[in-house]
Amino acid sequence: MFWFIAEDNAYYHNKKFLYQTLSSYTKLDLESTTPLNTQSKNKEFENLSTTQLLINPTLADIQILFKNPFHQCFIIVSNNPPPKDYQSFFSIKNLPNKYGILTTQEYQSNVPESKALENRLGLSVIDSPFTLQDIGGATALKKYTTQLLRAEQQGYKAKGIFLVGIPGTGKTFFPKCFAGELKRMLIALNLSQIMESDSPILKLNSIFEYLHQRAIDYPQEKFVILIDEIEKMIGNATAKEKQMLGRLLTILNDINTPACEYKFNAIFFATANDLGSILANNPEFLRRGRWDELFFINLPTHEYAIEMFEIYIKKYKLDFALEIMSLYEIFAEIENKYQKDNTIANRFPYTPAEIENFCKRLDFVKKAEGENFKREDIIECVEMIIPLTKSAQDGLNKMVAQKELFIEI
Ligand SMILES: Nc1ncnc2c1ncn2[C@@H]1O[C@H](COP(=O)(O)OP(=O)(O)O)[C@@H](O)[C@H]1O
Ligand SMILES: [Mg+2]
Description:
single chain; alpha/beta; 19 helices; 46% helix; 13% strand; binds magnesium ion
């Protein structure tokens, strides 16, 4: 029993194209078959002895089908996956679109490929403009990834890196910079979209099938795959999440080995803010060996914070502010105001995202105030950017408590 999901209208309008494709997948000769007319009144499908083709059957059609003794082979072609209760009866496959990722109808209406990927597969393809130079601090992570690349050139097969830590510390940013640095395509999975779909497993499979196909078309291409905020996919213990976890673990275990059903060259990055739910429900995800390395990204050290400020002072051209107040004085202002609430020892109270935000705000105020920009404006910016260390102290402490499991940076 085959169930083919076909989104391309060509399958419904071009009989020859449909039959050829189906024959190549099923190894059945379908030339003499006529699709059953599921619109007809007689839905008993009696006296069927050969292969039968059904196009877009309704749930009622499928129910009737399953009431019959099915000694015949059914091939179903539909826009949708099988109804839930029937999924286990079918071998399910997505039929490829006529124009690669684009369906005929999308091709004809000039839908861009990136849009189609987003809608269809739940992934974004990002051509990242960032490089490792855009990252302040994170020295251990930068060093590790550089080593990984050198090892890769000597035949080492990397699987992936797991990044966990405080929001705004660069967990999403780092893979973007890594991909940009290497000029590799960044594929970000949209986990909410995948999990909300009727069949998340099929969706996940089609992503990997797509990458597999791409690797055939462009054998030199290497990917960075970002599974961002993975707790959205496996944070709970629902049946759906357990199933997803199983599938993902199989792929992670096998990727870049001959055992893998998919062949493409990729390094995975997975990130999580909240490790609590994963540790409670799916600890196997973090077992040693699953990932090449696990990093906990903490608040920046004083030294890292300086690097980050320097990056954003340059980016937003903030030298005018430094003429009024030195970086040393700005740091003192921030630390005076917020260090007492910061329970994380020896770390700067702002996250990198907050440092960036602070600098962005200086740029904004300067543009708004022009010549009137003064020392008080800088101090007001410090007051406006209230760090998570103050506003979400308990949450941060819980996260930091998990850092023992990881290499801290
Ligand atoms: N180490 C860093 N150096 C410079 N900028 C950073 C760094 N980490 C984060 N940022 C800035 O902060 C923004 C938010 O970071 P993000 O990666 O989204 O945080 P997270 O995913 O950890 O919540 C980034 O887009 C980037 O502009
Ligand atoms: Mg993030």
